[in-house]
Design goal:
The protein is mainly β and 103 residues long. The protein is built from no helices and 9 strands.
Length: 103
């Protein structure tokens, strides 16, 4: 995954699914946070709220805004937390900082 410097970045969670209910979850509260991989206590930018994409199967999307302090060749951790009905899912994904033309 890449996080593009000097650009808006879309963060997407695809197919949020409740195995117990055997159904996609379309009503969760979902946030994403970006941390420096070298220091997971240091959040980069603000929390990003991911909104449910209408008529999808558990797909949520939010925007990490232009101007978020990212650096080339730095590694980040994107942490996504989804909560629904007392259940919680946490996903962490590594992402590298890059300019869009370096993808």
């Amino acid at each position: 995954m890449k996080l593009f410097i000097d650009s808006d970045n879309l963060i997407t969670l695809v197919g949020l699914y409740d195995n117990v209910a055997d159904a996609y979850v379309n009503t969760a509260g979902v946030i994403a946070q970006v941390f420096a991989a070298s220091d997971e206590d240091t959040q980069i930018g603000s929390d990003v709220t991911l909104s449910y994409i209408a008529a999808s199967d558990g797909e949520y999307r939010g925007q990490l805004v232009y101007g978020t302090a990212l650096a080339v060749n730095e590694t980040y951790i994107v942490k996504i937390v989804a909560s629904s009905g007392g259940n919680q899912l946490t996903v962490k994904v590594n992402a590298d900082g890059a300019f869009a033309n370096e993808s």
